[in-house]
Amino acid sequence: MKEIVVISGKGGTGKTSLTASFAYLGGKDVIVADCDVDAADMHLLLKPDFAEAEDFYSGELAYIEQDRCIRCGKCADVCRFDAIENVFNTYKVDRLACEGCGYCSRICPTHAIINKKRLAGEWYISQIKTGSLMVHAKLGIGADNSGKLVAKVKNEAKKIAEDEFKDFILVDGSPGIGCPVVSSLSGAHFVVMVTEPSVPGFHDLKRLFTLIKKFSLKAGCIINKFDINKQITKEIENYLKEENILHIANLPYNEDFIRAMTKGQTVVEYTDGGVRNLIEQSWNKIKDEIK
Amino acid sequence: MKIVFTTKGDNWDSIMDPRFGRTEFFLIYDEDKDELAHYDNREAASDAHGAGPKTAQKLFEFHPDVLITGNGPGGNAAAVLEKTGIRIITGAADMTAKEAYEKYRRGELN
Amino acid sequence: MKIAIASGKGGTGKTTLSTNLASYLSEIEQVVLTDLDVEEPNSGLFLSGNREIKEDKFKMVPQWIEDKCTLCGICQKVCNFHAVIQLGKMIMVFPELCHGCYACSELCPESALPMIPKKMGELNYSRDRNLHFIESRLDVGEEQAVPLIRQTKDYIDRTFPGDTVHIYDSPPGTSCPVIEVTKDVDFVILITEPTPFGFHDLKLAVETMRELKKPFGVVINRDGIGNQDVVDFCKCEKITLLAKIPNDRRIAELCSLGKLIYNEVPEFRRELDKIITYIMTIKNYKQA
Predict the structure, then answer these.
(1) Domain boundaries along the sequence of chain A
(2) What integer is the mean pLDDT of A122-133?
(3) Does residue B24 sit in helix, strand or coil?
(4) Please, are residues C117 and A152 in contact by the beta-carbon 8 Å criterion?
(5) 70-109 in chain C: CB under 8 A from chain B
(6) Which of C87, C88, C94 lies nearest to residue B76, judging by beta carbons?
(7) Do A10 and C225 touch (CB under 8 A)?
(8) pLDDT one digit per residue (tens) for chain B, 110 residues
(9) Which structural domains are found in chain C, ordered by start?
C-alpha cells in the first residue's frame, strides 16, 4: 500500500481538481483522504454518500456553572485571551476567544469552571462514485485546524486501505506550511506538488519544498496553467531540475476544469480532450515512480 | 541494551509505525533479559498539539538505549530526545518490528 | 474605518483585490494595507515602496530557572498544551507549543518560570506615497498565527490612530486566525469565484460572518466562468454583491507577474470604483 499526497502551498492552483481526477482514474484501487479540512471541496466532485459520520473533538473549552459561581472575577483576571466577559454581573465564556488553557478552572475558588472537550467538527467515511471509499471531514467555524483532524482522516483512510488490501491512498493535502501540512505529509511515499507559474505560486512552491526536503520525501511537480506565464514556467522547470524534483507534467490553462466542476464531475470524466490524456499520463507516471 | 520500537501493535509481528509523536504503541525489548514489553500510546493521538514532547517524555521513562522508528521525531520531540542521550535509528517503515530489529542488528539501519 | 478582505478558500483573488484596492484608493486617500496572512504573506510581492521599519515581534513564554526549581511538577500538570515537560531533573519548555496563558509561570510556587519574550516573527513597514504597507511574517516552525496577528493589529492601531482607511488582507479559511482578523473590523469583503468550489467555501465564510455579526458584502472574481449559483445565493440571502471582476486573461497574466492591474485593465478599475463608492458611503455614514 502506497501513500500519495497532493499538495500546493498556495490556493487556487487546481490541486483538488487534479486529486479528484486521479481518484477517478485510480477507481477501486484507491482510498481517498481529503485532508484539506479547512476548505474541503473534493466531495463536490466525487459525490460521497456521507454514510458514516462521527463528531470530532479537539482541545478544550471553559464552561462556567452559574449556580456555583460567586462572581469573584478571578477567572477574568487571569485569562490572557479576554475570553471571559462580565455581562450584567454574569461571567460568560466567549467560545471563539477561549483557547482552552484551563487556567481559569484551576484557580476558581468554588470549582465552578469545568473544561469540556471542544467539538471541532465532523468526519465521515463515504462511498464515492467510483465505488471506492473516501474519508473526509468538516471543520467547525473558528475551530483550530491543528494536525489532529488531518491525522485522524489519514489514519482512518490507512486502516481501510490495509483492511481491504488497496494499492493506494490518495491524499488531498492541507494548504500552507504549518502543522496541518506536516500532518498530511507524514508517512507519504510520494508527494505531488501542484503549482502555477506566477510570482506568488513559485514563491510558495519553494517554501513548500523546503518543508518536504526536511522530511526527505520523494517529490514531483505538476505546473498547472503553464501557458499563463511561460517565462516563470521556465524558471520553475529550472528550479525542479536543480532540486532534482520529478517534473510530472505541464498542463495548459483549460476551462474544462471549471465546466466539469459545475457539472459535479472530475475533468477526466467530463472530457476526452487532450487534458484528459495529460492527466492520465501524469497519474501513470506517479504510479511508476512509487512501484 | 534496551531497544524501543514505534509500532502499530504489541508484539514482534506488529507493523512499525513511522510516526514518533503519535505512534500507537511502543514495543520495548530488553536484550539482556530477553524480555518484551509494550506501552499503549494511542491516547497521544487525541492531543491537538504537543504529542511529540509528551511521547518523548514517556519514552524517557523506559530508559532505553536505542529508539527505532520510521520518519524520525519532529523538532520538539527531537529536542527532548537529544537531552536524554537516546540513540535514534530511523528509516524503519513498511516492515514488522521483528524485521526492523534484524535489520538493525545487521547494521542496515542508522 | 477597517475593512477585511477574506475568502473561504485560498486562490480566489484575495491578495489581488487587497493590493489593487489599497493602491488605487491611495491615489485619493491615506490608506494602510496590512497583510495579516502571516503564514504566507504575499501582498508585498505586488507592491513597491521602501522599507522604513523592521521590527522583531515577540511572544511571552516561560523560562526555567533551575536554581529556584524544586521539581514539584505543577508546571507540567497545569500546561494543557504539553509545552512544559518534566524530564528527570529537568524542566523543558517548548516555545512553539506555548499559548502564553501564564498558568505555569503564575502557579509555580517558587517563581521558577518567569515569562520572557521570544521572537515569533517580524513586522515590516514600507511606504509608497499615500500607501502605508505593513506585513507580518511568522517564523518557520511557529505554529500560532493568532498572537502575531494580535500584535500587528496593536501596532497599526497605535501607529495610525484616527479614521484612516485600513485594509486587511486576511488568511484564508474560517478558523481562528480569520476570526482574529475580522472580529474588530467595520466591514468584510468576501471574495469568491462563481464555481462550485468557490460557492461551497463562500457559504462557510458567510456562516462565519453571521456568527460574528459582521456586516459583509461579496465580490465575484473571474465572473463569467462557472455558473449563476453565487449570484442567486446572494440575491436570495439579501447579500450585497459589491462587484464582479471579469474573467480576463490579461488580469491573470498581470497577476502572475506580480503587477497591479487597475492601470492596465479599465474593466477592472470600474469594478474597483464600485467597491470604493460603497466603502466611502459606509465611512461617511460612520462619521455622521
Answers:
(1) 2-47+128-289, 59-119
(2) 96
(3) coil
(4) no
(5) 81-83, 85-88, 90, 92, 94, 96-97
(6) C94
(7) no
(8) 999 999 999 999 999 988 888 888 999 999 999 999 999 998 876 666 778 888 888 898 899 999 999 877 777 788 788 888 889 888 888 899 999 999 999 988 87
(9) 2-53+121-287 (3.40.50.300), 64-113 (3.30.70.20)
Which chains share 3+ C-beta pairs under 8 angstroms with B?
A, C
Using a CB-CB distance cutoff of 8 angstroms, which residues of chain B are in contact with residue A155? 45
Q: How far apart are CA A82 and CA A80, in angstroms?
A: 6
Q: Report the length, in residues, of chain C.
A: 288
- Domain A2-47+128-289 sits in CATH 3.40.50.300: yes
State residue A146's pLDDT score: 66
Interface test mutation site (partner A, options B14, B49, B90, max chain A beta carbons within 10 A): B49
Judge whether residue A193 has pLDDT over 80.
yes
Domain A59-119 has CATH 3.30.70.20: yes
Distance (Å) from the alpha carbon of B48 to chain A's nearest alpha carbon:
5
Tell me the CA end-to-end span of chain A in Å, nearest whole number: 10
Residue A288: partners with Cβ closer than 8 Å, 6 or more residues away: none
Average pLDDT estimate for A151-167: 91
Mean pLDDT for C98-111 is 95
**Complex confidence, ipTM:** 0.87
Count of H-run helices and E-run strands, chain B:
3, 5
pLDDT at B46: 66
Q: Domains of chain B (ranges plus CATH)?
A: 2-105 (3.30.420.130)
- Closest alpha carbon to A123 in A135, A137, A143: A137
Cβ separation of A139 and C195 shorter than 8 Å? no
